[in-house]
Design a protein that fits this description.
Structural class: alpha/beta
Bound molecules: nicotinamide-adenine-dinucleotide
CATH class: Alpha Beta
CATH topology: Rossmann fold
Strand order of the largest sheet: 3-2-1-4-5-6-7
Radius of gyration: 17 Å
Shape: globular
Number of domains: 1
Order of helices and strands: EHEHEHEHEHEHHHHE
Oligomer: single chain
Strand content: 5-15%
Largest sheet: 7 strands, parallel
Length: 257
C-alpha cells in the first residue's frame, strides 16, 4: 500500500538527537513515502549530521538558525539544491534559557531572555513559513509542536507564554495562508523525554501523574504517536483543517482530575 505522504517533499526543522520529536517525524514521513530534508543550527548541526544516518533513507541536512535573517533568506536556495518545491514544513523548534526563564523563575524572567524565547519558539513559526512560501506555490501543510498553553503549568513558566504566542501565531498564519491552499496546524504533545524537556528544571513535576491521569495512558519515551499525528496533518487526510490544535497527550487535556 502506498504511504500517505507518497511523492511529498517535507522540511523538518529542529532535529538534534534521535529522541527529538523532529527525528521521529522525519522517520515516519519517510516510511510514508516522503522525501525529507532536515535542519538544525549552530554546534548541534554536527550531531544532526551523524543522527541523520539513523533514518531509514538519506536526508539532506541544512543549516538554519531561525533567528538569523540571512539563513532564512537563503533557505529556498538551500532547499532548491535538493527538491524543486515543498509540500510540507514541520516546525519542531523551541528555546528558553533554563537558568532564567524556567523552573519557577517566572516573576524574575528578564526581558532579553523572554524576547529570545518568543523569537525562537513563536515568531519563528511565521518567519520559517514565510521563508518557505516561494517553494509552496501550489499549497501545502505547515505543522508545529506545542505544549498546551491554555493553562499554567509547574516549571514551564515563560516557555508557556511563548507557546501561547505560537498557538496564536498558527491561527493568524492559517488565516493568511488559507487562500493560498496552505494549512497551518499544531500538535499539542504530552511530555516527552527529549533534550529540550530534560533541560527544564522541574520537568519531572510537570510529567508526574500524566500516565495515570490520561485515559489512554502516556509513555513519555515514545515519540511515535506525536510523529504520526504530525504526519497525518502533513498528508491529504486533513484537507479542510487549519488553525487547529490536535492533542496527542493520552487524553490528559480532557480530564478534570
Ligand atoms: N518534549 C516535550 O515534552 C514536548 C512536548 C510538547 C511540545 N514539544 C515541542 O516539540 C518541539 C521539539 O522539541 P523536542 O522536545 O523534540 O526537543 P529537541 O531539543 O530535540 O528539539 C528542539 C530543536 O530546536 C532547535 N533549535 C533551538 N533553537 C533554534 C534556533 N535558533 N534555530 C533553529 N533551531 C533551533 C534545537 O537545535 C533542537 O533541534 C519544540 O517546539 C517543543 O517545545 C516538546
Amino acid at each position: 500500500m502506498a504511504g500517505i505522504l507518497e511523492g511529498k517533499k517535507i522540511l523538518v526543522a529542529g532535529v538534534t538527537m534521535d529522541s527529538s520529536i523532529g527525528f521521529s517525524v522525519a522517520r515516519v514521513a519517510q516510511e510514508q513515502g516522503a522525501t525529507v530534508l532536515i535542519s538544525n543550527f549552530g554546534r548541534a548541526l554536527g550531531i544532526t549530521r551523524r543522527i541523520a544516518g539513523r533514518l531509514p533513507a538519506q536526508a539532506p541536512v541544512l543549516e538554519l538558525d531561525v533567528t538569523d535573517d540571512e539563513h532564512l533568506a537563503r533557505l529556498p536556495e538551500l532547499i532548491g539544491e535538493h527538491v524543486d518545491s515543498l509540500d510540507g514544513v514541520v516546525h519542531s523548534i523551541a528555546y528558553g534559557n533554563p537558568e532564567t526563564l524556567l523552573g519557577g523563575k517566572f516573576l524574575s524572567g528578564p526581558w532579553p531572555d523572554v524576547a529570545q524565547a518568543v523569537q525562537v519558539s513563536a515568531y519563528s513559526l511565521a518567519s520559517l513559513t514565510n521563508a518557505c512560501l516561494p517553494l509552496m506555490s501550489t499549497g501545502g501543510s505547515v505543522v508545529g509542536l506545542t505544549f498546551d498553553a491554555t493553562v499554567a503549568w509547574p516549571a514551564y513558566d515563560w516557555m508557556g507564554v511563548a507557546k501561547a504566542g505560537l498557538e496564536s501565531c498558527s491561527r493568524y498564519l492559517a488565516r493568511d495562508l488559507g487562500p493560498r491552499g496552505i494549512r497551518v496546524n499544531l500538535v499539542s504533545a504530552g511530555p516527552l523525554r527529549t533534550l529540550a524537556a530534560k533541560a527544564i528544571p522541574g520537568f519531572d513535576e510537570l510529567e508526574a501523574n500524566w500516565d495515570s491521569r490520561s485515559p489512554l495512558g502516556w509513555d513519555n519515551t515514545d515519540q511515535e504517536p506525536t510523529a504520526r499525528a504530525v504526519v497525518a496533518l502533513l498528508s491529504d487526510f486533513f484537507p479542510a483543517t487549519t488553525g487547529e490544535i490536535v492533542h496527542v497527550d493520552g487524553g490528559y487535556h480532557a480530564m478534570g482530575a
